[in-house]
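Cross-posted from the bioinformatics board.
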Amino acid sequence: MNQRNTSLAKGTDRYLIWLWFILSLIGIISIFSATYRDGDNVLQGFISLKTDYSRQSLFFIISGIFGIVILLTDSKFFTATANLSYVCGIFLMLLVFPFHSNVKGTSSIIRLGSSIQIQPADVCKIFVNLALAKYLSRVETDFARPRSQLIAAVIALVPAALSIMQKETGLALVYFSFFLVMFREGLPALVLIIGFSFAVLVVATLLMEPNMLALILTGIAVLAIYILRRQIKRQRAILFAIASIWFVCVGIQRFVVPFVFDHVFQPYQVKRIYDAIGKDYIPKNAAAAKEIEEKSIGKKKDNGDYNVKQSKIAISNGGLIGKGLLKGTQTRYDFVPEQRTDFIFCTIGEGFGFVGSILFLSIYVVLLMRIVTIAERQRSVFSRAYAYGVASVFFFHIAINVCMTIGLAPVIGIPLPFVSYGGTSLLTFSVMLFILARLDADRQMVLR
Amino acid sequence: MPVFNQSRSNIIRLIFCGMFLVIFVQLFNLQVFSDKYKKMAQENALFPKRVYPSRGIIYDHRQRAILNNTIMYDLMVTPSQVKNIDTAFFCQLLEIDSAEFRSRILDAKIRNGTFRPSIFDDLLEPDLYAKLEENIWRFPGFNLQERPVRVYPFNAAAHIMGYVGEVDSNILRRSNYYYQLGDYVGRSGLEQYYEKQLMGQRGIEYWIKDNKNRLVGHYEDRGLDTPAIAGRNLHTYLDIELQQLAEKLLTSKIGSIVAIEPKTGGILAMASSPDYDPNSLTGSDKQKNYGLLALDVRAPLLNRAIKGLYPPGSTYKPLGALVGLDEGVITQASGYPCLGVYLACTHPVKCLENWAGHAANLRLAIAHSCNSFFCNTFRLTVDNRKIGNVRDGLETWKSYMNKFGLGHRIGVDLPSEDGGNIPDTASYDKEYHRSWNSCTMTTLGIGQDKMLVTPLQMANAMCIVANKGYFYIPHFVQNVEGHAVEDSLLDKYLVKHEVLTHISDADYETVISGMQDVTEVGTARIARIDGINMCAKTGTAENYLTLEGKRTKLNNNSMFVCFAPRENPQIAVAVVIQNAGFGATWAGRIGSLIAEKYLRDTLTAARVKLATDIANTNLMPGYFARLQFITDSSRAVVWAKQNGDSTRWKQYQDPSFRKQMLDTLHRPSTHITIPFGPKTQTINVLTDSSKSKKTDSVSSRKTDSTRKSKKIIINKTTDTAALIPKEKPVIQKDTSTIQAP
């Protein structure tokens, strides 16, 4: 026992564990401040397990226990079971289709009994991460080859596709963050750049006047020609390349996007996309309007715009130093919907202001930097790839969640790691982190 | 291979940091730089609740509250916050239909914007308030705001007290937006004149509200709240019992009574008829009631005591005598050989007495109200050689009249007082092309011609006679509780105006003796009070009215002025009863009742009976019924042309009905009920109008306007019904409730 204890502590990255502890604690306090009402008995609230903060505390403890168990496990266990766990994860996600229960407009949740519910799409992140790391670390994998890159992409995107089918677009997007891992392991930067540019172009098409955007694109092209004029003199092909890129961009903006929106997507899907970027969608004809109407019947009215506005108001109300814990007028009185889950950042923003938010986000920055540092000190590709996977998933969650609350990103419901209310979410993130700690503890021993 | 991509870890770090940098910039923008969202946060969570102070109470001189406060509630709505409410239940509570609900919300939006509270339903009935109070949490966007409401416990002095009403855009602008929409402000009477004193200071409480719009607590521990400061009470000279008696005596008459205490200028009573139930303009029906009053051709909202212009007739004669005496054109021994007509000028002026010697001296001339004597006196005054020509004479006479407080506003503490008219040379120049002389305007000597005075001015002139030359500006308010600097507006009432003290006491005594003779041996023996030496003067003034383009001579106005007791005048009274005939018969008896009531504090049984008899006599001039018929039927025609609904118009075409209504010019109107009423509305209307005091001949106007408002409602319902077919049953139900309440 004694020896076990020392081995538990030995090699484990203390910073990681401390950061986990601090973030989870901040989470519980934030949930407390978002849901506590004047006159509630705090102690009773914590003991009763009927309040959100007490349940979150319980899951915090459970996560801790899971963490200890993981730290006690042999790190070879994770490499050995990576593929198996991936298969299990996919199987779990498939199970959702016959056994899901409809909660809040999503059909991605399986209920066991009355109180336990599992969201496989969420848990699956761990398995995908492991499987991807395993695939990348195979001796026979040459990641420079497009075929390997394709296989890796498929590993990451199969759960994403399943998520979309379960109407969990937000979680599906998370799986795209694994491209960062692939990038680190040798995926050409061009793929990321093209993908990113394409996304920007589509969003810009929806947001801007078509002519204005065409003008801007032309301007960029002209600028590029001007900057590259010396090279162009030597090599005419560059001019041709720029011209064709410009042509493709304008083509997409002018014809492809409108065509896809009018003929490929269903009107309600178009409406959702418009909602996400915060624009009013005006149906083209009565039939389309009717279809949207029908699709929204029986569903909670999704008022993304209102949420973001309230969230911005709340955060703005914090000012420089904040209103203080339990003193915010916006977050205390339920103006922000989904406040304890997706919009938990508002509580911190209003309660502790600009200074508090910066400090809070800095903890995340430190965490991410720490994970990258850990990743780079690994000897095995598996551990490194896994570590980057953790960093990418965390980063994606944090960035999208915070940007969503401050109006920089569309409202897609994904939680803030360790802080948002939600047992599965807390447990998933904790497990991911503890596996990383376990792998890191063995970095000296294993050469995979 | 791992080494190969080592540099990419830095790129990933850079991506991470870059993203966070963007977030920091946006956070800085939101939290530190921009205050747009902070304002929205305030709007979100702060509710500045206006706290209305109670308005000041108005007391009579025995500390009885004539105008008091009670608490009622307004239902306020903030349209932007009205979301997902159970409209059906809400409408059921308020007993409105959903179309009405919609239109009221729309109204609120138009009036006050979507985000600010406006009144949805004001001055709720107590039981409705109780029901709403219980359920208000179900209706986000609605809240109940308490508001002190004025009550008139004696149901009297409507014109004097005035009423409060919601501010309109004019008042808002003039007040430099001190008032806000929905505030109540004095709109007439003392309520308006003493608005600053009565209003008090509005308070604001800042409340924190939650997302369901429930007020959850005070903001910053009430640190920012401003408390409401109650309005200041007014103490008046009014005697509410006297006021009630005056109003009772004027029942079914057109006219006015003013009673002033000569020693102070304090107004003891001021009645104008027809009047209205002041409480009808406070409750939830006040808009409707106001509409009814405004459509009445008898103008019940008009305070005739300060706005009614009458030729003073013979009540002017004491003043004419004083002027003549002071100018030295007559002495107390002067007489005039009158035999019933004044023939000195081209137009003969009749005199009521024709026996020789009724104008043997000044006293007798006053007592018997000899027209010849006073025409002569007036001509002597304006043709006075000492002064010069007739123009200067008229100007001299006019300056005397002005000193008697005639021809200009006296300055009573009520808004919109009228100044009357004392003709000057310019007005005669205009009419007679500068060729006129004392004969042209002989009848000014008996208070006719272009001379017009208000009852208040007549009473005030009596005060000057009673006081032998001085007066205080007539006013109601004795003092305002809690002295403050701006109360200097009461200062002018403390100034003694010694306008005519240069007339010798002997002259005053002569005229006053003559006036006492009026009740002893003269024209107003009927008005004599046993045991009190009352000095009085009757007046029977001819008057004309332009009716439908024709100058029509109406029944004489019955006028009476008096003060009593002679030795120590305590009350001066002026009474005008329009088109009632001989001065002493109606006005005289009414004046004596008022004086006796004030001086003795009670009336004997016989006198009470007299008062009751007078109150029960209908002296309402018939032409009002005719006028009302004409205006109402014209409206019906306009209505029919606009809406294609001619049922109402047809009723006015019934020949016998027309004859009955239009032949009322020269006889007092009997109780004419107009056979109105398609369907059941009339029942509704009659029960409504039974609430307010006035009905009789003009019930036509009420029915008409009610019908109008009902039509408007129906219009609204049909409009919305076209949009929402499924709500039709509700509308039908609603219409039926209107018909049979």
